[in-house]
Amino acid sequence: MADAAGGAAGTPGDTVPSRNLHRIAFAAGLLGFAGAFVFGLVSSFAAGRGLPDVILDERGLGDTYFEAGDHLAAAAEYRSAVAVTPATSLSLRKLRDALAAAGSTEAARSVSARLAQSDPTDVTARNDLGLMLHDRGKYGEAVTEFERALAVEPTRAATWIHLGNALLPLQEFERAEEAYLEAMKIDSSSADAWNGLGAVHGSQRRFDLAVSHFAEAVRLAPDDPTVAGNLDKVRQLMAEAAEAGKVAEGAP
Predict the structure, then answer these.
(1) pLDDT at position 108
(2) C-alpha Rg value of the chain to the nearest Å
(3) Quick one: pLDDT at residue 118?
(4) How far apart are CA 87 and CA 90, in angstroms?
(5) Residue 234: what pLDDT?
(6) Against a cut of 0.90, is the pTM above it?
(7) I need a surface site. Which of 182, 209, 245, 252 has the fewest CB within 10 A?
(8) What are the tens digits of pLDDT across the range 130-159?
(9) How far apart are CA 215 and CA 213, in angstroms?
(10) Do the beta carbons of residue 71 and residue 34 sit within 8 Å?
(11) What percent of the chain has pLDDT over 70?
């Protein structure tokens, strides 16, 4: 009886841990299923078009910072998004815009160089890449990028102006003049286009035309010191040329 009683008394004690073990096994099974489901979801998106926004909210916190004016914090968020999905044009564009807004022009243009590779039709990226090359003195390569941008969108006046600016140091004055004139067809009130024409004619020592175009640029952008400086400089060159002519005429 003692053994029977002991056996009977031991049965409930053995049942409780068994139930707990069953519960743990069931919970582990659920976790395993959920993990497999999430892994499959992530893998399918990663293999297709990249991680979805529900998993990587690249436009949430970054946009919040950007709209609040904290562009460096926004750039950090967008950079994190780019690190996870490096080929995503949206993340690269937002990172570029945040860096540009923060005043990090060179960094923004470097991002544009990546964006131009991932999305050849992005005109802004092509322009930024061209400007970066121009600033580094690689004028021929800059011309190529601006021409690629114009092949996609030929009606953007700024791109024609950038092209003209890159052609000037190459002394391709006729092509530069054509570029500025194309810009003026699109936007006749562009001070940059008038300034470019003035630079072309000044380089050709056609000072009367240069003065006329620089003067129009000053009228359109009276607060731009560069344009005003160009007008003063070409007037000085014009005066020096006239003085040199008088001296030559009076020479024996």
Answers:
(1) 85
(2) 34
(3) 76
(4) 9
(5) 92
(6) no
(7) 252
(8) 998 998 899 999 999 999 999 999 999 999
(9) 5
(10) no
(11) 73
> HEC profile for the chain?
CHHHHHHHHHHHHHHHHHHHHHHHHHHHHHHHHHHHHHHHHHHHHHHCCCCCCCCCCCCCHHHHHHHCCCHHHHHHHHHHHHHHCCCCHHHHHHHHHHHHHCCCHHHHHHHHHHHHHHCCCCHHHHHHHHHHHHHCCCHHHHHHHHHHHHHHCCCCHHHHHHHHHHHHHHCCHHHHHHHHHHHHHHCCCCHHHHHHHHHHHHHCCCHHHHHHHHHHHHHHCCCCHHHHHHHHHHHHHHHHHHHHHHHHHHCC
226's tokens: 């560069």
Please write the tens of the pLDDT for every residue from 11-67: 444 445 555 545 554 444 544 444 443 344 334 333 343 433 333 444 578 888 888
